[in-house]
Amino acid sequence: MKLAMIGFGQAGGKIVDRFLDYDDRTNSGIVRAALAVNSAKADLMGLERIPQENRVLIGQARVKGHGVGADNELGAEIAEEDIDEVQNAIDAIPTHEVDAFLIVAGMGGGTGSGGAPVLAKHLKRIYTIPVYGLGVLPGTDEGGIYTLNAARSFQTFVREVDNLLVFDNDSWRQTGESVESGYGQINEEIVRRFGILFGAGEVTGNQDVAESVVDSSEIINTLSGGGVSTVGFASEGVELNSSGGLLSRFTGDDGGADDLDAANTTNRITSLVRKAALGRLTLPCEIEGTERALLVVSGPPEYLNRKGIERGRKWLEEETGSMEVRGGDYPQKVPEVSSAILLSGVTNVPRIKRLQQVAIEAQDNMDDIQAESEENLEELVEDDEDELEPLF
Ligand code: GDP
């Protein structure tokens, strides 16, 4: 499906930048337009792919291009004040060719955390197409203020979008890496997972036509009804043979009988589906109780075994208890077969409950510290017997 992507704040901008790169590399055609909105000029300048005219600096009157410094209330305020500037940039993109908006933001910071929900509310009032959010949760080691920001942004963002797709930095953090190179890999993971899902509904003329195509209405239906979504993913390589064609490790291409191969492919696909659902999700959660799901199996067409996909889909129905599990294939000329699963309307998410608990503790601590420091300052400034008078 074709998306208008808006990266709000630094993380949001960087991720949309990566989506443009992914789109070029894979020819998936999902990014119809890309915008970046930020209150920090330097962050906008650091972007590589998003066209200059689509970079919107907000809050200049208040923060002079220096950002809001993790103050997400200020982030929300300046987004509201300068919403017309964002709208002007959106007016310049062909929204009639777009199936949905996707607002991307890190929820732990300031500009994106506060601004993304404001923009979602605004867009929903104006447009009839869906407005989705892609919200990134901070790592647990980032500290109290980031957790508190994320918890408050999450509550607001979910309410304002048609569906909030969540990616949890904490589950993807790798030890012993610099933050920047770590984010590089994490951002690749984000664009691959969401890219395959959204790309499935955008099979173009020069790609092989899928056997049972996933179209954008199926993605929209899976996301409709609102709530929170997570994505599972698993892939397996298929090797190239000496003549450059694809040879199968996947089908066990050892010259055996065709029906044996077919059975093997079916089983491999079914186990890829299980791996994707039971492995690391973008937001860790219990999959039982998921309201709706979409399974996309992608890879070279000869490996997209319809029976395997159908079996995988049925298995997902049983595991989630959902009556609304859609499935289809997405042919791509890449040397791997992959299974991407969108689980929409998940409600059993211990990670969010923990986040909220830590956020409340951080909030209480901050209130205590502030009250204490006011007292301490007064004690310092006032003389003991109150004999001195201030000048005015
Ligand atoms: P903002 O510019 O004020 O909106 O704040 P940032 O976007 O810089 O940071 C918000 C949060 O996003 C941080 O707490 C990190 O958890 C996360 N973050 C920052 N940069 C990246 C990135 O490149 N990728 C990912 N996945 N997360 C990031």
From TrEMBL:
Q: Which GO terms describe its molecular function?
A: GTP binding; GTPase activity
Residues binding GTP: Q10, A11, G12, G13, K14, G110, T111, G112, E142, N169, N187
Classification via SUPFAM superfamilies: Tubulin nucleotide-binding domain-like
Q: Where is the Tubulin/FtsZ GTPase domain?
A: 2-205
Offer one example of a GO biological process linked to this entry.
microtubule-based process
- Note the coiled coil stretches, chain numbering: 352-379
Per the record, what is one GO cellular component?
microtubule
Entries under InterPro entries matching the protein: CetZ, CetZ_C, FtsZ/CetZ, Tubulin/FtsZ-like_C, Tubulin/FtsZ_GTPase_sf, Tubulin_CS, Tubulin_FtsZ_GTPase
One of this protein's Pfam families, by short name? Answer: Tubulin
> Where would you find this protein in the cell?
Cytoplasm
- Where it mainly occurs, coarsely classed, is cytoplasm
User: Which terms are listed as keywords in the entry?
Assistant: Cell cycle, Cell division, Cell shape, Coiled coil, Cytoplasm, GTP-binding, Nucleotide-binding
Family of the protein in this entry: Belongs to the CetZ family.
- Which PANTHER family has this protein been placed in? CELL DIVISION PROTEIN FTSZ-RELATED, TUBULIN-LIKE PROTEIN CETZ
Please give the function described in this protein's UniProt entry.
Involved in cell shape control.
The name under which this protein is listed is Tubulin-like protein CetZ
Q: Which gene holds the coding sequence for this protein?
A: cetZ
